[in-house]
Amino acid sequence: MRTVYDVSDVRRTVETMIDRIAAAFPASSPLNIIGIRTRGEILAERLAQGLASRGFGHVGRGVLDITLYRDDLSEIGPNPVVRPTEIDIDIDAVPLLLVDDVLFTGRSIRAALDALSDFGRAGAIRLAVLVDRGGRELPIQADFVGLTLGDIPRDYRVNVRLSETDGRDEILVEPRT
């Protein structure tokens, strides 16, 4: 089992995702990209920039905080950190790309879908994740996956680090501590 993916692996993975997304949506039509805080937000920005460089001119951006929509809120602790959701775009009838860093059980994505419904009804919602580590508890599947890791034990975690928040780009597969 490979446990370390470096900056060049992350760059290549994101570029591949951009190519796949660009092939799936018409560049001349509007597209909204919403990232789930925190690293999904950063990945969404990278995807939006990559699509802009490929001729996508109508890309709306937003950021979604799902903290209060989680079904494990009681496990987070007595004072969960809730940061603002920033969706200042019209999502009604416009295709929406929801972006997160790691897809595991599917519960974060379910929470994000619940939260998005408070803002309108997108024309279609597609999911893009940097890493799909398997282990689903809900019937949720990503449309665009950068890296699929199917052999990760449940007692391990996949840590995505991005330069904007962590000082470097890397993906680490590590035992939970």
Task: Please characterize this protein's 3D structure.
The mean pLDDT is 94. Strand 4, helix 4 and strand 5 form a beta-alpha-beta unit. Helix 1 crosses helix 2. This protein has one domain: Rossmann fold, CATH 3.40.50.2020. It is α/β, with parallel strands linked by helices. The strands form two sheets. Strands 3-2-4-5-6 form a five-stranded parallel β-sheet. It has a three-stranded antiparallel β-sheet with strand order 1-8-7. It contains five helices and eight strands, in the order βαβαβαβαβββαβ.
The second-level CATH architecture is: 3-Layer(aba) Sandwich
Structural shape: globular
Mean pLDDT, nearest integer? 94
Q: Strand content of the residues, in percent?
A: 25-35%
- The class by helix and strand makeup works out as alpha/beta
Q: Would you kindly provide a brief summary of this structure?
A:
The protein has five helices and eight strands. With 177 residues, the protein is an alpha/beta fold.
What descriptors fit this protein?
alpha/beta; 8 strands; 177 residues
